[in-house]
Design a protein that fits this description.
- The two termini are 40 Å apart.
- With 254 residues, the protein is an alpha+beta fold.
- A hairpin with a 2-residue loop joins strand 5 and strand 6.
- It has ten helices and eight strands.
- It is 41% helix and 24% strand.
Amino acid sequence: MYDMGTRKQAMVLVGQGHSLNSVSKETGVSRAALRAWRTRIEPLDRGRADPCPRCADRPRAPEDPAAYSYLLGLYLGDGCISHQGRGVHSLRIACADDWPALIDACVAAVQAVRPGNKVCRVQSQGCQYVTSSSKHWPCLFPQHDPGKKHERKIALAPWQQEIVDAHPWAFIRGLIHSDGCRITNWTTRIVAGERKRYEYPRYFFTNLSGDIIRLFTATLDKLGVDWKAANHRNISVARKASVALMDLHVGPKH
């Protein structure tokens, strides 16, 4: 365990452009610790994390199922879980810098699902990674497995499907916020001999995984949202009534 003075001194040296190897030699701090401190400099409070609802004697749903349903959508789109060692896993959700409110919503959802674990924002080029470490992310997201999602089977566990059925709009919102968008299309028509331009909004969802596409469209079907497959990886929602429903419950990213 390193004290905060050592941690801050080491991060000052790293911030000045010194290599991790040179900082490690000067301070006696391992390079692995230096890499970890780029994400979170404060030490973990090992006794602070809440028990995992899935590891209880009687497994139950997370305390905030609506937040979980939203986070599940984000995870299936732009999330991953990686092993850090000693049984700890890191959940990471990529969020574009263009949508600061979306980043805030992602942070809030992660915090709601694991209130005892810290949530960090790690800046990268053009995006922030919302990250949180816990031993229990694989319990909460059993879709975690080696390899890319579109190269393996993705299916919801029965308890996850129950949450999505109870909070379908939160799930759709998470999927749209990760791999979807709301755009304005336009076309022209001849009216009274004059060509006029008409604009209309539509939603798109794009994912390489056929399984995730089917989870998205099956949930839309239950909600009464009309959709069409533009191709094998793109789903379009363009009918006026369905776009209005999506606007009411999802809306554009911001």
